[in-house]
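Hi R.,

Here's the chain you asked about this morning:
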Amino acid sequence: MRNYIALYKKVILMLLLLSHILCSCSSETEAELENKVSEDDVQQELEKTLTIGIGTEQARGDTLETVITEVDWKNYFDGINGSAVIYNPSENNYQIYNQEMAFSQRSPCSTFKIISSLIALENKVIILDESIRTWSGEIFWNENWNRDINFEEAFRTSCVWYYREIIDEIGKDTMQKELNKLHYGNCDISDWEGYLNTNNNNRALTGFWIESSLKISPKEQVEVLERIFGEHSVYSQETQNSLKQVMLLSEGQNGDMLIYGKTGLGKSHGVTIDAWFAGFADTDDERKYFCVYLGETNGKDVSSTKAKEIAIELISDLERL
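And here is the predicted structure, written out as tokens:
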């Protein structure tokens, strides 16, 4: 160890001397410069180096190996083409049903309201006490959208026109930066207006997140949620609490377990091709993140309501084990 420290000292001394030469552009000799670099300078740099090294080794030692367990949950799906992912960050363990689908990227649809709400809250595009937006008067198919509406109501009724306005106010640059930070799927917002959506041509009801350019997999969904709500989250506690409040389900609770989530549904030519329910469940001692995805299946009920039912049943059954 002493030999390593001596070597470190020599390296640090050389780096400090080089720094002095570059900064001063001086003609002083190496001996003169060496006299200017005190033993304290070397010791301080040495301590920094050793501290960084120790910290790195500790971090490596504390990192749990990722475990992916393939499970057979087909009975929950009743013949529907789908996938489920449950992630326990305390054990770094994934339980996955239908891995091929779990790793395949699809349109997030209204599950993206979690992300657009997060970004809007953090960037003060949504201010809770001033979140009411004025209805244009256009009659939409969902009667709950045909009125002035606030943030909580817009999230719970999945009001697309409200979020179209929110996302336009966030803007392309901020949205791209935030999605890159979250590592959100393919991070592709190139079809900002949603022209690729073949199910709807109403500007108020289309966007890059609805059967368009943005894609994400079920496994990536749980990882993004953990980045938002996990212990190393970079987002303010105020934003997290506001988001949790609107994500909390009033139904489907099991004892002391609380379930948070958001549905999503996408169609093509009138046929449901993507149905989601993504979120997390809290108990007294742990948090698990989950995502259930359903794809197009002939003759079956493919809906976000069904995805939510499957997720709640799965989480509840696992909690009882």
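One quick note: Residues 39-62 form the longest helix (24 residues).

Cheers,
M.
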